[in-house]
Write a structure and sequence with these properties.
Strand order of the largest sheet: 2-1-3
Order of helices and strands: HEHEHEH
Oligomer: single chain
Low-confidence stretches: none
Shape: globular
Helix content: 40-55%
Radius of gyration: 13 Å
Number of helices: 4
Length: about 90
């Protein structure tokens, strides 16, 4: 909850109906913070994510989502997505 409160917005990676994603969304709503959800197979949404960051005026971004053990590959996907969306190079 403190991460949601301390940020301007949250991006949530992974399985949307998971308990953790649901909790993060509820906390964002409770504290009036915007959130953006990225499904593991939605790499093509980087442009939409970039536009959302600008629209929301995000300076501090909270990154949340599934654990690797419950969603294998989500860690690498999250890394690649953020690097592509924020201007870094992927390995």
């Amino acid at each position: 909850e403190e991460n949601v409160k301390a940020s301007d917005a949250t991006v949530i990676f992974g399985d949307d109906p998971s308990p953790g994603c649901g909790l993060t969304k509820r906390l964002c709503k409770r504290h009036g913070k915007p959130y953006f959800t990225v499904a593991k197979d939605a790499f093509d949404s980087t442009g939409e994510f970039q536009a959302w960051l600008v629209e929301q005026g995000v300076k501090v971004l909270n990154v949340a989502g599934n654990r690797e053990r419950t969603n294998p590959g989500i860690g690498q996907f999250t890394y690649d997505f953020l690097m592509a969306a924020l201007g870094g190079a992927t390995e």
